[in-house]
Design a protein that fits this description.
alpha+beta; 5-stranded antiparallel β-sheet; 3-stranded antiparallel β-sheet; 15% helix; 30% strand; globular
């Protein structure tokens, strides 16, 4: 043991005194991620909130925004009330020695219990045309996306109609919030917009989590403070 510790101390001594201090920024950024596939998402988060962004820096073709507090449950099946749903997740009493045995005619509640609660997609940010149409994949060219591992910020650069678009995306390390910086001459001319829309819950996950085709199932209330800020109450 003394020999091993002595050799280790000698090695550490040689290493510590032989070279310059480690350039940690250079060491980390040497492994920055480059991913230019349009629908491939990169996750940004803080352990409590996550925003996955595609190669546009937003969620134009894929990606979700989820948080530890964002859960949803579908309404109970017809004829069932909350007091009839067992809090333990099973109708069996005593020691369970096999698979769960559900009462007769309980198939609807069994499916409900398996599916609920589930994660809720908080919303999506997409690039679109002035008339609200989402961009198509063939309208985006010259894609270059890099995730800086030192800052945690992905930078996306591409062209739409031959015009440059630059997008930076980041998630706050302390708060459940995402921020986006978008620069393009198309914005000044009103030819490129960013849309924010919300889904109803769904357990399907491709390419976005959520049901975007039935807006009558949920509501959103807009409160505008000024031309630069607004609240959306879901």
């Amino acid at each position: 043991m003394k020999i091993i510790l002595g050799c280790l101390a000698a090695c550490l001594g040689v290493t510590a005194g032989a070279g310059a201090p480690i350039d940690r920024h250079a060491l980390v950024t040497r492994h920055n991620i480059e991913c230019n596939a349009l629908a491939t998402t990169l996750p940004l988060g803080n352990g409590e909130f996550c925003f996955t962004a595609d190669a546009t820096g937003l969620q134009t073709f894929a990606g979700n925004a989820m948080a530890h507090w964002g859960w949803h449950s579908f309404p109970l099946p017809a004829g069932w009330t909350a007091d009839r749903v067992p809090p333990t997740g099973t109708f069996q009493q005593g020691r369970n020695t096999g698979g769960d045995i559900f009462p007769k005619d309980a198939a609807p509640i069994r499916t409900w219990m398996f599916d609920n609660p589930h994660r809720l997609n908080l919303g999506r940010l997409r690039l679109c045309h002035a008339d609200g149409r989402a961009l198509a994949t063939n309208e985006i060219t010259a894609v270059s996306r890099t995730l800086d591992l030192w800052t945690g910020i992905p930078t996306a650069q591409f062209e739409v109609a031959g015009q440059p678009v630059h997008v930076e995306t980041c998630v706050d390390p302390q708060h459940d919030a995402v921020a986006v910086r978008l620069e393009s001459p198309l914005l000044a001319r009103g030819e490129l917009l960013v849309t924010l829309d919300f889904p109803y819950a769904s357990i399907k996950s491709e390419p976005w989590v959520g049901n975007w085709s039935e807006p009558e199932l949920h509501t959103t209330k807009l409160t505008r403070h000024d031309e630069h800020s607004a609240d959306f109450a879901r």
